Amino acid sequence: MLPKDFIASPEGWLFAVVSELTEDDKVLCFLRYAPIAGVWCKLDSDSANRLLAEHSPAYLYQSRLLSARLHALPRSRIVEHYSPRRILQKLLNSPTADPAINDLQHLARVLAEAGVELATLGITGSLLVGMQHHASDIDLVCYDRAAFHQMRQVVQSLMAENRCQTLNDGDWLAAWQRRSCDFSLDDYIWHEVRKYNKGMINGRKFDLSLVVPSDRQQSAGGWKLGAVHITADVVDDGYAFDYPARLDIRHATFERVLCFTATYTGQAHTGETIAVSGQAEIDGEGRRVVIVGSSREAMGEYIRVLR
């Protein structure tokens, strides 16, 4: 399994997978959807943690590999696996009156006409698990780094041709508020518009994210050093859109910034100077790194380009 996949538990809860690695034969994940009083609800971190603490505390988990408190579902408790690639192909080939799926199909046609290979894509979020409503976003995930960056260029071209649009002021404000970003709205928009990994089509927001399977095992045994605020120069942004996003930096103490929150994915370019607030760690290979996104909402943690 890969990040952005979803899995279901016997209780009927839907969890988003956050790592391809497993611990104690458990899949690392986070509860996203659950029926409450007979109504399906999308849960934030606090609501998910409260629900599990009350009804299934065994799913609460301290990950040694990720050095984070999250959720974990034993493999034996997985009753369904939602594959983004498989579900996307199903949605693209199914006649429907659902407006969100219709817009997904339209977006896929536009991308394909521009040369994007749809076989490299999957669908995640509400559309993956059938929880979409009339205003749901389209959350595409790409499994090939070169294809992902090609898609970003395609989105830039489509915006120039007005075949899709950038977010309007209200959309940016809503995204900024939802992300609880730690700097101003104007600063947030400046960072976001140059990523070309989100836009609007038929008035519906779409997002593009990258998931590339790792070719090596992650080492456990890192040491937490506490909160840190640093200024550093970016020397390599080649993995800035990966999960976790990675920026190699020039700094007297730290070698790398790792980001586990989508808010700051693709945030900076090689040659730029950044301010980083996060948690300092020595990773399993002995590197000193700064972790941004040590919790899902990452309050007080950020990557900001100094300009």
How is the topology of this model organized?
Layout: E1 6-8, E2 14-23, E3 26-36, E4 39-42, H1 45-55, E5 60-63, E6 68-74, E7 80-82, H2 84-92, H3 99-113, E8 121-124, H4 126-129, E9 138-142, H5 145-160, H6 169-179, H7 185-193, E10 198-201, E11 204-210, E12 223-239, E13 245-250, E14 256-259, E15 273-282, E16 288-292, E17 302-305
Parallel strand pairs: 9-11, 14-16
Antiparallel strand pairs: 1-2, 1-7, 2-3, 3-4, 3-6, 5-6, 8-9, 10-11, 12-13, 12-15, 13-14, 15-16, 15-17
Overview of the molecule:
- The chain has 307 residues and is α+β, with helices and mostly antiparallel strands.
- It has three domains: 6-82, no CATH class; 84-210, no CATH class; 223-305, Nucleic acid-binding proteins (OB fold (Dihydrolipoamide Acetyltransferase, E2P)).
- The chain is 24% helix and 35% strand.
- The chain contains seven helices and 17 strands.
- The protein has helices at 45-55, 84-92, 99-113, 126-129, 145-160, 169-179, 185-193, and strands at residues 6-8, 14-23, 26-36, 39-42, 60-63, 68-74, 80-82, 121-124, 138-142, 198-201, 204-210, 223-239, 245-250, 256-259, 273-282, 288-292, 302-305.
- The strands form three sheets. Strands 1, 2, 3, 4, 5, 6 and 7 form a seven-stranded antiparallel beta sheet that branches. A five-stranded mixed beta barrel has the order 12-13-14-16-15. It has a four-stranded mixed beta sheet with strand order 8-9-11-10.
- A hairpin with a 5-residue loop joins strand 15 and strand 16.
- The longest helix is centred in the middle third of the chain and has 16 residues, at 145-160.
- It is globular and about 55 Å long.
- The N and C termini lie far apart (39 Å).
